[in-house]
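Reply to thread "Modeling small-molecule complexes from scratch"

Following up on the discussion above, here's a worked example others can learn from. I took a protein sequence and the SMILES for flavin-adenine dinucleotide and predicted the complex. Inputs first:
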Amino acid sequence: MSDQQTLKDGRHAVVIGAGIVGTCCALYLQREGLAVTLIDRDGPGEAATFGNAGALGLASVPPLGMPDTLWKAPKMILDPLHPLSLRWGHLPKALPWFVQFTLASRRSRAEAIADVRADLLRRVNDAYAPLLEDAGARNMVHDLGLLMLFESERSRVNVEFALEMRRRRGIKIEDLSGDEAREMEPALGPLIERGVFFPEVCQTVSPLRLTQRLVRHFQDRGGTLRRETVKGFDFGPDGPKGVITDSGRHDGDLMVLAAGVWSKFLARQLGTRVLLEAERGYHTVLPNPGVDIRVPLVSEDRHVTFGPMEDGLRMTSIAEFAAIEAAPDHARAERIFAAARDLIPGLDTKGATRWVGSRPSTPDSVPVIGPAPRFANVLFAFGHGHLGLTLAAVTGRIVADLAQGRRPETDLGPFRPDRF
Ligand SMILES: Cc1cc2nc3c(=O)[nH]c(=O)nc-3n(C[C@H](O)[C@H](O)[C@H](O)COP(=O)(O)OP(=O)(O)OC[C@H]3O[C@@H](n4cnc5c(N)ncnc54)[C@H](O)[C@@H]3O)c2cc1C
C-alpha cells in the first residue's frame, strides 16, 4: 500500500461497483487519504458505462420527464421507430416508478429539476479536471460540442421549450440553418433543415478505456481492485461494518454503494427502497463507417446519436423499460439505427457490433447521492440515468466531502435516497 493511502487518514472505504461512478468515488476518496477497496463482479466499466454515447453532456439540463412527455408517451410507445419502449409485462412492477415520473413531469417540478441538474452540470469540468490530469487521461476527452439535427422547421419548434430551459440556465446554444449544420459537419446529407449546436459538450474517445485508465491510476496510487460479487453487508451491533462477497469479507469504516441499476437490491438490505428502473439503451458501432464524422450528432427526428469514438462510429438510442435481465430486442434497435443512417449518406455497416445496457434511472432524472437513511457510514451514489458519465466526478467529489464531514457545495436535498 502506498504512502498516499496510509498517510492522512486511517480509515478504510469499500466502494461497490467499478462503473464510472464508483471509479470516480474511489479516486476522490483516495485523494482524501482513505485506503480504498473497489469491488466489481466484472472488469471496470463493463456494464452501463461500457456502451454509452460518450458525451459529457453539459447541456443536458432538461429532465427526461417534461410537461409534454405524458401526452406524447402513448403515441411514442406505439411507434415501432420511436425509442421509447415498454415491456408490458414489466408494467406492474414499474408502476410506482411511473407514478413518480408522472408527478415529476409537471411543469413546476420539471423547472425545479432543471435547476438541480444545471447546478451539477456547472461543476462537471472542475470535478473531472484533477482526475483526468493525474491519470494522464486528458487526451481521452475532447471539446467537440454536440450538434442537434432537425429535418423540419416543425421539429425545431417542438424543442423550443427545452432549449429555452437551457438558455435560462446559461447553456450556450447556436442556432444553425441546414447549410450551416452541413458546413460544420460535411458528412450530413440533404435531409437536415435546421441545427442547434451546443459548444460546451465534450466527448470521450471511449468510456470503457477512460474508466480502465482511471482505475489503473487508482491502483498505481495503492488502491485495491477486487473482482468479486457483493452479496450483502456484514452487520455489527451498530450497523454495517463491511461487505460480504462471494469470496469473503471486506471490512470498511465507510461503504459506498455505486452499483448502478443493481444498487437497489443492496439498498434494500439496508432497509431503503429506492425507485430505480433499468432504462435500457442500445448501441451499434460501425468500425469502418467510411465517412469521417467530426462532430457528435443527435437527431431529434430519428432519436439516435452518432458519436465518433476510437473504435468507430457509435450510434446509440432507445429507452426501454424492462426487467434488467430481459432478452434484448436487437431487431427493434436495428430498425431504428437503419432509419437514422439515411441522415449520413454512404455509411458502411460492415462488421457492426451491437450492445444493450441498463441506465440506472430514477423517476425524477436526478441521482441518489447521500448517506443511507438508516446507516450514516454507507453512502449511496447511483441513479444517474442518462448522465452517469457526465456526473461521475461531481458525485465523487460530493462523496469525498461527505466522507470528511464537510458540507458539499451542492445542496443534497434533491438527491436524498428517501425522497420517493
Ligand atoms: C445507450 C446509452 C447511452 C448513454 N449515453 C450517455 C452519455 O452520452 N453521457 C452520459 O453521461 N451518460 C450516458 N449514459 C448513461 C451512463 O452510461 C450511465 O448513467 C452510467 O454508465 C452509470 O454508471 P454507474 O457506474 O452508475 O453504473 P454501471 O456502469 O452500470 O456500473 C455499475 C457496476 O456495479 C457492478 N455491480 C453491480 N452489482 C454488483 C455486486 N453485487 N457486486 C459487485 N459489483 C456489482 C457492475 O458489474 C457494474 O460494473 C448512456 C447510457 C446508455 C445505456
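What I'd highlight from this example: The two ends are 41 Å apart (CA to CA). Confidence is low (pLDDT under 50) at residues 1-7. Questions welcome below.
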